Amino acid sequence: MEEKKINSIKTLNELKNGEKGTIVSFSDEGDVELKRHLLGMGFVKGSEITLEKVAPLGDPIKLRLKGYSVCLRKNEAENIKVQI
Amino acid sequence: MNNIKIGLAGNPNVGKTTLFNQLTGLRQHVGNWPGKTVEKAEGHLNFDNSRIDVIDLPGNYALSAHSIEEIVSRDFIVDEESDVIVNVIDAANLERNLYLTTQMMELGANLVIALNMNKFAKKREYEINVKELSELLGVPVVEIEATDSTSKEELLKVVEKAANNPIDSSKKLVYGAELDEHIKDLENLIEENNQLSDVPSSWTVIKLLENDDIVVEKVKTLPNFIEIFNEVDKVKKHLKNVYNENSEEVIANYRYSFIDGLIKESVVKPDVEKPSFTEKLDKFITNRILGIPIFLVILWVIFQITFTIGVPFQNLIDEGFTLLGEGILAVLGETWLSSLLVDGIIGGVGGVLTFLPVIFLMFLGISILEDSGYLARAAFVMDKVMHKLVGLHGKAFIPMILGFGCGVPAIMATRTMEYERDRLLTMMIVPFMSCTARLPVYALFVAAFFTAYQGEITLSLYILGIIVAIIVAAILKRTTFKGVSTPFVMELPSYKVPSVKGVLIHSWEKGYSFIKKAGTIILLASVVIWALSSLPVGVEYGTQESVIGQIGTTISPILAPLGFGEWQALVSLIFGVVAKELVVGTFSSLFGGAEEGAGIESAIHELFTPLSAYAFMAFVLLYVPCFAAIGAVRQETNSWKWPLAMVAITTITAYIVSFIIYQGGMLIGIG
C-alpha cells in the first residue's frame, strides 16, 4: 500500500502522453516569478491537469487544465507535484 | 457632450483587440505607454451624445508586478481617470479568465464584463446563466460577439450607464472567513494614516501578502510601516502553519475557490467534454513527425508572400523614384539643388517607401498566423531548437528567418514575443542573418574572385552569419541579458478564423508607423550623407576630395589589419549604412562611373586579394545594418539605447570576425 501511494505522486514533467492528475503541491524552489505566473494561470492545488502532448523534439510539453491548453518547458514543470 | 474614458482589459487571446477594432475602427492610434516599450492603442467613438475614448490595455493573466504589461494595466486602473473598465472574457474559458477579474475587483474597479465567444462556448455545450453570474459578481455582464458587432449597442449602453453610476466591485468578493478576518485587521493598520487612499486598503494587504515589490516600497513610506510588516509576517507564518503553503499560494487558491463557487452556481458544463476542433487539429499540427515539416512549409509560404510578391512592388517604387530623379535632373540640370533633391531627398524618401510593400505583406502573414492561433504552435514546435542554440523563446524563430529577407520586417516581427528581454536580444542578432540587400555585394566579389565556387562561397557567408548570431547571443546572454532566463509558459489558444478587418488594420498601422517614425530617421541620415558627399562646394559627388572621401582617407588605416585599408572601401561601407545595395554602386561610381561589369571587376582586383575580398564580404555581412533597420529598432524600443547598442555590437563583431579571417588566412598562407 505504502509503495503504491508513493508511486502515484509524480512531478508534472513525468506525466505520460494523455495521463491525468491533480496538482498537490508547488515547490518553492526555482523561479519565484515563474511560480507567480503559473499560479495566476491556474496551477493551484486541486486543479486537474492532463498532459496532452510532448513537442516533436521532446520539449516543451502541452498541458490542459481549467478548460484551456498551455505549454511549459519540462524544467519549468518539475517543481509541480501531481497525484495520479 | 459627455466624455467617457474606458479601458479594455482581459487575458490574451480573448478577442480584446478585435472588440477594440470593432468599437473604434480606423479612429485609432497606436503608440507607446509613456517611458515603456509596451504598445498603447487608443481610439474613440461617438455614441448617444457621448464621446467614448477607448484604451486597449495589454493582455494579462493577472495584475501582479510580474511583467511591465501587468504593471501598465494595473497603473491604468489605479491612477488614470478612467470611468469604466470593460473586462473582456472568453466564455469558453471562464475559470482562468475570471482570475484577472477577481484582481480587478480587489481594486474596486468600476467593471463591466463583456462575455465574448459565446457561440464557441455553446458549441462546447456550456450553459452560462448570465444573470446569475452578474448577480454573483455584482457587476453588469453583457454577452457580445466581437468578430461581428453583436450587442455592440447594448454593451455601449451598459458602459454609459456604468459611467454615470460607478460601483465598488470589491463588495461581493469573499475569500472566506479565515483570510478575510486577517485582511480586515491589517487594513485597519494601513488606514491609520489616511495615506495610500487611492487604492482600497484590502488590496494593499493582499499585495503585501503576495510579496509585491512595488506595493512593499509604497508601504515603506507609511510612518507605521514597521508595525505593518511585523503583522504581515505574523499572518504569513500563520497561513503557512494552517495551509502548509506560502501566502502567495493561499491567496491564489482563495481566488480560484471564489471562482469555483461562481461557476458552480452559474454554469452548466457537459459531463464529458467533446474534443473540440482545436484539439483535433492540434493532433495533426503539433504531430511528432508532421509538426516540423508543417511549420517549415508555412514559414516558406510567409517568406514567399513577403518577398516574392513584395519585391516587384519594391522595384516598382524604386523605378518610380529613379524616373522622378531623372525628370528633375532633366529640368534643373546638374546643380547642387538637383543633387540634393535626387541624391539626398528622393534617395532617402524612396529608400523608406520601398520598404512599405514587404512590411505590409509580412504583417499580413504574421497577423494571420498570430490571430489564427498557429503562431503559438509554431513556437511550441520550434522552442527546443531556439532554446538550445541561442537561449531564446520558440517565437524568435520567425523573425530570425525573416531576417534572411529583410531586417526591417524581421525586427518588427519581434513584437510577437511576450518578454522584453527576448524581444531585445532577438533584435540584436537579427542583423546577422544575411538579408537580400547584401546579395549584390557578394555577387560582385564572388564573380571577381571565386568564379569556380560562387555558390559555395555565398552559402558559407550565410552560414557564417548564423554561427556569429549564435555566438553573439551566447555572449549577450551572459553579459547584458544576464539573469533569470525568461520562462516559456504560453497559452495555446483555440484556433479561429482571423478577422479580415483586424488583420488589415494591423498591417496598415505597422507599415504606416514605420514610414512615419523610422522614415524621419532614414531621410535625415540620407541628407547628412548627401551633404558629406557634396561638400566642400564644387567637389564631385562622393570623391576623395569630398568630406566623406576625406573622412574615408583619414580613418581607413583602421581597416588595414582586415585587408582593406583603402579609402574607397571605407567610403563604400559608409554608403552601405544608408542601404547595402549602395556598396556596389559606390564602387562603380568611384571607379569612373563604369557600369557594373568588367570595369569594376578589374578595378577591385587592384584593391583586393581573394582573402581580403572574403574578409570584406564578411564585414559587409556583419557590420551595421542599414539606417532603416536602425530606425526600426528605434521605433520598436522607443529609445536610442538599443539602436546604438546594435550599431556597436555589429561593428565590433564585424571587425573581430574580419580580423580573424584575414590575419588567420595570412598566417596559414592563403593570402
Describe this structure in words.
The complex is a heterodimer of chains A (84) and B (671). Chain A has 84 residues and is of the alpha+beta class. Chain A has a single domain, classed as SH3 type barrels (Roll). Chain A is built from 3 helices and 6 strands; from the N terminus they run αββαβββαβ. In chain A, strands 1-6-2-3-4-5 form a 6-stranded antiparallel sheet. By secondary structure, chain B is of the alpha/beta class. Among the domains of chain B are: 171 residues, P-loop containing nucleotide triphosphate hydrolases (Rossmann fold), CATH 3.40.50; 92 residues, Helix Hairpins (Orthogonal Bundle). Chain B contains 29 helices and 10 strands. In chain B, strands 2-3-4-1-5-6-8 form a 7-stranded mixed sheet, with helices on both faces. In chain B, helix 3 crosses helix 11 and helix 13 runs antiparallel to helix 15. Chains A and B meet through helix 2, strand 3 and strand 5 of A and helix 3, helix 11, helix 12, helix 16 and strand 10 of B.
What is the compact description of this entry?
Chain A: This is Ferrous iron transporter FeoA-like domain-containing protein. The complex is a heterodimer of chains A (84) and B (671). With 84 residues, chain A is of the alpha+beta class.
Q: Looking at CATH, which topology of the domain at 2-172 in chain B would you report?
A: Rossmann fold
Q: List the helices and strands of chain A in order.
A: HEEHEEEHE
* CA-atom Rg of chain A in angstroms: 12 Å
Biggest sheet, spatial arrangement of strands of chain B: 2-3-4-1-5-6-8
Structural class by SSE content of chain B = alpha/beta
CATH architecture call of chain A: Roll
Beta-sheet strand percentage of chain B?
A: 5-15%
Set out the fold topology.
The complex is a heterodimer of chains A (84) and B (671).
Chain A: H1 2-7, E1 9-11, E2 20-26, H2 32-40, E3 48-54, E4 61-65, E5 68-72, H3 74-77, E6 80-83
Antiparallel strand pairs in A: 1-6, 2-3, 2-6, 3-4, 4-5
Chain B: E1 2-10, H1 16-24, E2 28-32, E3 39-47, E4 50-56, H2 68-79, E5 84-90, H3 94-106, E6 111-116, H4 118-123, E7 127-128, H5 130-137, E8 141-143, H6 152-164, H7 177-191, H8 201-209, H9 213-219, H10 225-243, H11 247-266, E9 267-268, H12 277-285, H13 291-332, H14 336-353, H15 355-372, H16 374-390, H17 397-402, H18 407-413, H19 420-429, H20 439-449, H21 454-478, E10 490-492, H22 500-534, H23 547-555, H24 567-578, H25 582-590, H26 598-607, H27 610-622, H28 627-637, H29 641-667
Helix pairs in contact in B: 3-11, 5-11, 7-8, 7-10, 13-14, 13-15, 14-22, 15-18, 15-22, 18-28, 19-21, 19-29, 20-26, 20-27, 21-27, 22-28, 23-24, 24-25, 27-29, 28-29
